[in-house]
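Example 4.3 (complexes with small molecules)
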Amino acid sequence: MVRIVGFFAGLAFVSALLVAFVMPREKVEETAAQYVHEHREEKKISFSFDNPVWGKYDRQQLQRGFQVYKEVCSACHSLKHVAFRDLEEIGFTKPEVKAIAKQWSTEVPSINEQTGEPATRKAIPSDYFPSPFANDTAARVANNNALPPDLSDIAKAREGGPHYTHDLLTSYQEQPADLVKKFPDIKTPETLHYNPAFANLNIAMPPPLAADDQVAYADGTKATIDQMATDVSAFLMWTAEPKLENRHRTGIAVVIFLLIATALAYGSYQNIWRDKKH
Ligand code: HEC
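Answer. The structure with heme C bound is encoded below.
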């Protein structure tokens, strides 16, 4: 009896599965963002640190990327997990770091020693990069109610990392008319900017890199929009993962160790069994 009940219960489950399998899925309305992301290819560029084993940062490129952050992005974006003295890791000397901190456009919050009132002072190398806005509300007021995210970890926070930031910075364009015809709700409002690399297509950030030679590179590299976008993306990868090279080096050491250990294990195996074989 139990067997028969069991059999029918099983049959019921299997039929439910079969029905679910055969029934057409309910059609989900495609959004404009899904449509655009499906039909566009993310731009592929290569970075010196792409390779997971021997990839390395190009110090010269990181310095150029820092220059772009300093002259363009730092007007809106903080970099609060990075200290001025960390710049020594990308090849700036101590006196250079000191000068960069001292000349930074925003001062660091402090307290007036005489009155105890809030005040500001010039940055020193041990300070973290000061935020361009006093707080999030002030940042929103200056940016049509959108909050420019802190960029310290952005390369880790977005799929594609530096490839995404480069894509985002170089994909601003006029909104295609046929897209608006197909999806009337997606029409870019006055305060936003059409950018197909951005998740919901309309971004509050105005195109930060709008013309070639927007920065004059200290090392003489031609500052095309693409070059600036690539360099600043590499720099933001470094801020998010400054220890990338150590990690790669450890990886290589572990692989070499394992190879030697395997060779030794094989050798001792041969040795132990040598006289047991015919
Ligand atoms: C005029 C102010 C302004 C400047 C200058 C600016 N940004 Fe932005 N940025 C914003 C705002 C506002 C947002 C938030 C956009 C949104 O949520 O719609 C943003 C968002 C971003 C994002 C996150 C996008 C995402 O996927 O959420 C990245 C990355 C970014 N900016 C990088 C940069 C870089 C790199 C520079 C310098 C080359 C720069 N920004 C310069 C205002 C600015």
